[in-house]
Amino acid sequence: MCGIVGYVGSKDALPILIESLKKLEYRGYDSSGVGFLDHKANLVVRKSKGKIRNLEELIRTQPVPFAHTGISHTRWATHGFPSDINSHPHTDSKHHIAVVHNGIIENYQELREELKKKGVKFVSETDSEVIPQLIASVYKGDLAQAVRQTLLRLKGTFALGVISRDNPDCLVAARVGSPLIIGVGDGENFIASDVPAILDYTRRVIYLQDGQMAVLSKTSQELFTFDGKKVKVKIDTVSFSVTAARKEGYAHFMLKEIHEQPLVLEQMINLRLKNGKLTLEGLGISDDSLKNIRKILVVACGTAYHAGMVGKYIIENLVRLPVEVDTSSEYRYRDPLVDRHTLVLAVSQSGETADTLAAAREAHAKGAKVIAICNVVGSSLAREADGILYTYAGPEIGVASTKAYSAQLMMFYLIALKLAQLRKTLPPKRSKELISQLTNMPSLYKEILRNTQHIQKIAEANSHFGCFLFLGRHVNYPSALEGALKLKEISYIPAEGYAAGEMKHGPIALIDEYRAVVCINPQSHVYEKMASNIQEIRARKGNVIAIATQGDVQVKHNADFVVEIPLTDELLSPLTVILPLQLLAYFIALKRGCYVAHPRIFAKPLTVVSGPSMLGPVRYLHPGNFNAIYRLNTHRQSKRHHPARH
Ligand code: F6R
Questions:
Q1: How far apart, in whole angstroms, are the C-alpha atoms of residue 133 and residue 114?
Q2: Residues 201, 168: Cα–Cα separation, whole Å
Q3: 330 CB burial (10 A radius; 0-12, 13-18, 19+)
Q4: Would you state the torsion angle of the CA atoms of residues 87, 103, 2, 27, taken in this order, to the nearest 10 degrees?
């Protein structure tokens, strides 16, 4: 997974491409590069292994000329290890055409062999290099035509930006299965993998659809299907502000997004709860159909999966409807049992996670209705699902997911309450009480965040531990999993989440004075059970950090450290316990000197494999749909001089 940016206009492209690229570094950061057409229409490429600052350093020592058309790329290696050569842009052998690519070309070996037989010499180990080589091999003076011919030969997933020295005022883009948007400016156009990259320049965007290509000049945007049919251009205005994509004084996006959570929840409540009445606009399913569902299946990955696990407890408790939760990567390969009476909730912040898309498609193909719970407006999952419930949490730029999680939890509460109302499984008084507590949640969040310094101190006092356990029961068992995930992904400390009742079946052997154990124990019907687990840990000299309800005196005797959270209905407690867990992970990582902004292993989202669309015929691609493109591909198989930078 990678980030791409392109520019065509009248301004100096370099600073635009670099600054925009930095906003996509969350998508990959093992190498980066830029490609420009200089005033003599020569193709100039600079690329470097490592973070974007290495590329900037390279450009300082090897300046590039003024150019008003260019492309840039930040890479997360899939084919070929991170190196200068494997970085993008890739060019054809004659150095006439340059391409940036996000995704995977599955048939690149076959294409490479075919081109090699024609004498083409490859310099990198990437799948991406076949693209400029293929374009060059069919190029006869019309760049758009050559790109189109090439697209029909590619299998897999891709978002592309293409420039050519023969067409210095033209930027060509295309996508299948990897995100790409077009930013429409005044006398300039952009392409980018994600909206935040271009928000400094424009808020007007075109969401390029799968199977579409765009031909951009500084003043025009033309869209086509891969078989050359013109597509009507629809320009949307992005609703979130420029500041949403800036750190605004916070040290990291993760910290900023943790602090944004009260606002995110408040907005969700204002949108979805009007005068105590629930509105789930976008659901796309009639009340009658909702009443007849026999089972709910949640598919998701990582943090979104943990939100789904909480969702199971909530829905089963409030609606008395069976809920299965599966990691998308398992679900899609296990020939699952779903039918038209199953409602599938596909949860994904990005809406681009390949396994979740594939799982949703699989369920859809088996007759289930698919509702996406998604943050990114216009994402693949959002477009393909039968219904879409947006969380509208704004761009989540921090690599570790925080505000998307609390928003997903909130959405599960709202869905459960809606279903409970429809199916009459909840006394109105209880429903009203839960709604009232949810409405009050933003205030509770602000209260917990006022305690940040205390949590930071606890984090710092425990940051030396080389191993953490996170324990929870019932609805906070998933919270334990999420707490452990947050810690390991940004601090690299081995951390395990467990259902506390499972301790005695083996994991208790791990406890000694070298372990820190985070025990999540707000007031609930399993409080005493969890309190016994804390005693067991103390007896083995484990270091206990408890997350407990304000005023809990008992826990203060048994835990080494206590983070207090306000009292809520126990079913709602995953919403409150998550804040201290996120802050603990953040401050432990910070204290250990970890690079919170760019953790070493993880970039998001994981759009690396693809499959056919879950939809039937014609939705957003002419002719046919993503299926059609998939099949198609399977079968055929201004030149101003700027002296300062010379
Ligand atoms: C962890 C994290 C990941 C994502 C997972 C799914 O902090 O961010 O575990 O939750 O990759 O991503 P989405 O929700 O975009 O499908």
A1: 11
A2: 21
A3: middle
A4: -160
Burial of 229 (0-12, 13-18, 19+ CB in 10 A): exposed
Q: Which residues contact 556 (CB under 8 A, 6 or more apart)?
A: 562
Atom of ligand 1 nearest to the CA of 606: 11
Tokens read off for 624: 């046919």
Please report where in the chains the tokens 């989440």 appear, as a residue: 497
Residue 615, both tokens: 């939809």
Which residues' Cβ are closer than 6 Å to ligand 1?
A: 301-304, 348-350, 353, 356, 400-401, 485, 489, 604-606
Query: Cα of 435 to ligand 1 centre, how many Å?
Result: 28
Asked whether residue 627 carries a pLDDT value surpassing 50, the answer given is no
Work out the pLDDT band at 602, boundaries 50, 70, 90: low
Ligand 1 mutation target, pool 301, 390, 490, most atoms within 8 A of CB: 301
| DSSP β-ladder status, 369-374 and 342-348 | parallel
Q: Which of 27, 310, 401 to mutate to test the pocket of ligand 1 (most atoms within 8 A of CB)?
A: 401
d(CA 542, CA 562): 14
Q: Whose CA is nearest to atom 3 of ligand 1?
A: 302
**Interatomic CA distance for residues 557 and 116, integer angstroms:** 73
Give the CA radius of gyration of the chain: 26
CA 347 / ligand 1 centre spacing (Å): 10
Residue 337: exposure state from Cβ atoms within 10 A (0-12, 13-18, ≥19): exposed
Residues annotated as catalytic are: 2, 604
Mean pLDDT confidence for 369-388: 91
Q: Round to whole Å and give the CA distance between 496 and 480.
A: 8
CA atoms of 120 and 131, how far apart (whole Å): 12
CA of 349 to the centre of ligand 1 (A): 7
- Dist. CA 409 → ligand 1 center (Å): 14
Query: E strands along 146-252, which residues?
Result: 156-164, 171-176, 181-184, 189-192, 204-207, 212-216, 221-225, 230-231, 236-237
CA-nearest residue for atom 6, ligand 1, is 301
- Examine the pLDDT at 206 and tell me if it is beyond 80: yes
Each residue's pLDDT tens digit, 68-105: 999 999 877 667 777 788 888 999 999 999 999 998 89
- The atom of ligand 1 lying closest to the CA of 381 is 16
Bridge-based pairing of strands 97-105 and 156-164 is antiparallel
Tokens 């606890």, residue located: 458
Q: Which amino acid is at 457?
A: K
CA–CA distance, 54 with 32 (Å, rounded to integer) = 8
